[in-house]
Amino acid sequence: MQTMTSPAVQAHPAHDFLPLNGTDYVEFYVGNAKQSAYYYQAAFGYELVAYAGPETGLRDRASYVLQQGKIRLVLTTSLLPDSDISEHVRKHGDGVKVMALWVDDARKSFEETTKRGARAAFEPYTISDADGEVTLSGIYTYGETIHTFVERRNYRGHLCRASWPKPAWCPNKLLWASCTWTTA
Fold it and tell me: Where are the beta strands (DSSP E) in the chain?
């Protein structure tokens, strides 16, 4: 006996409340960012594309930005023994702190996730440089990990410092945004 079934017709098709374009970057908090950057370059073929640290005016941490194709990693280490970064590494070891997601609208992504119960890490804000502007927002996901929403639709450059949100230990967004990055 043959049974005929018809596909179910949805009256209201499902709507993706959080459309993602991809991963913008992944930031690791590590005990030694210089050594970690060297390892990722030597073992996995990543290319160093930017650096910030004491030589560029940052006194509390050093960050190396590595890229391979579409994959971008930020390796950050604290230069102070009692910072949030140091505490995170002491507590968890080297690991992911931020998963940055590329979205079309960082404000809407923040609103949609927080109204569904996500805990806010930081409210949406926009930072600009000579190449345009980037809007960021963030939520906590599991444990202390943050998902940052990165909106780059009005940004024409390759690397914007604004791609990395102001950490809790930085006193103001303008100081964070104005830090100098050396690109390789």
Answer: 22-29, 47-52, 61-68, 71-78, 95-103, 119-129, 132-140, 146-151, 182-183
Residue 137's CATH number = 3.10.180.10
Task: Find out whether 159 and 180 touch, Cβ atoms under 8 Å.
Answer: no
Percent of the chain surpassing pLDDT 90: 59
Lowest-pLDDT choice from 14-18, 67-71, 167-171: 167-171
Give the H/E segment covering residue 174: helix 173-178
> For 146-164, what is the mean pLDDT?
74
Amino acid 94: pLDDT: 97
Q: Can you read off the two tokens belonging to residue 111?
A: 């609103």
Per this entry, what is the length of the chain?
Answer: 184
Query: 85 by DSSP, 3-state: which?
Result: helix
Answer yes or no: is 150 within a domain: yes
Q: Is residue 30 part of a domain?
A: yes
22 CB neighbour count, 10 Å cutoff: 9
Q: What is the DSSP letter of 159?
A: -
Q: What is the pTM of this model?
A: 0.79
Separation between Cα atoms, residue 171 and residue 176, nearest integer Å: 8
Number of domains in the chain: 1
Residue 5 included in any domain:
no
